[in-house]
Write a structure and sequence with these properties.
With about 220 residues, this protein is of the alpha+beta class. The chain has a single domain, classed as Gcn5-related N-acetyltransferase (GNAT) (Aminopeptidase), CATH 3.40.630. It contains eight helices and seven strands, in the order βαααββαααβαβαββ. The protein has a seven-stranded mixed β-sheet, sandwiched between helices. Helix 1 crosses helix 3. The longest helix has 18 residues. The two termini are about 30 Å apart. GO terms for molecular function: N-acetyltransferase activity. This is N-acetyltransferase domain-containing protein. It comes from Dinothrombium tinctorium.
Length: about 220
């Protein structure tokens, strides 16, 4: 494999390519998508395309590109972000709505644990939410995810963001944030224990055992 990949900011022109890659990675690898049985088309239509479109409205996200690949297939990794915001509850009965509502529950949990931010809308605009992270099959173990996150953190700090939060449902992501990026765990819940609307949609997930939520104080970034 030629080492000709570079990291750059995510642009509106990248939306479609990243949305497809995001949906493929998530439905093939992520425990929550497998647990609810979300198909690639469902996740693309109801989640990844919308996340990419919202991310493209802010200059906060990054992609990794391999210029040796054909046009339209050059993006090999992505780190999608947005400014923190509690989204309205999705009352749809779709499988993907379960995941989006779960992510929103985790954001609410973080805000409850930070009352000084909950009561200050200006401070909330200084909080960055990590939305999606993925690396194309065949490009694993090249530290691409780490480099994407570091590029995002440095950029966010330059824009005067103060905090970063992320929810992780994969072992690799949990290891990345805990041990490579030194994020602080603020909340953890076993998949078997997570309940929404009287149901336990992720019951039976054992690898990883828990959902872990992390935060990072950008003032600590060198």
């Amino acid at each position: 494999m030629k080492s000709c990949y570079t990291i750059r900011q995510f642009t509106p022109d990248d939306v479609e390519e990243v949305a497809i890659l995001f949906a493929k990675i998530f439905t093939e690898r992520e425990a929550t998508a497998k647990a609810v049985g979300a198909s690639l088309n469902e996740y693309y239509r109801e989640a990844s395309k919308k996340v990419c479109e919202s991310s493209a409205k802010e200059s906060l996200s990054f992609v990794c590109v391999d210029d040796s690949l054909p046009t339209g297939q050059q993006i090999i990794g992505f780190r999608l972000c947005k400014t923190f915001k509690i989204e309205p509850t999705n009352f749809s009965e779709s499988k993907v709505a379960i995941i989006s509502n779960f992510m929103n529950d985790m954001a609410k949990k973080w805000l409850r644990e930070h009352p000084e931010i909950a009561e200050n809308e200006e401070m909330q605009r200084k909080v960055l939410t990590f939305q999606g992270l993925g690396v194309k099959t065949g490009y694993e173990r090249l530290n691409i995810a780490t480099k994407l996150c570091l590029a995002t953190l440095k950029h966010a700090k330059s824009l005067d963001y103060q905090h970063v939060i992320t929810v992780t449902t994969a072992e690799a992501s949990q290891h990345l944030f805990a041990y490579k990026l030194n994020f602080k765990e603020y909340y953890s819940i076993d998949f078997d224990d997570y309940e929404i609307n009287g149901q336990k949609p992720f019951y039976g997930v054992k690898k990883p055992k828990s959902i872990k939520c992390f935060e990072f104080d950008l003032n600590l970034l060198n």
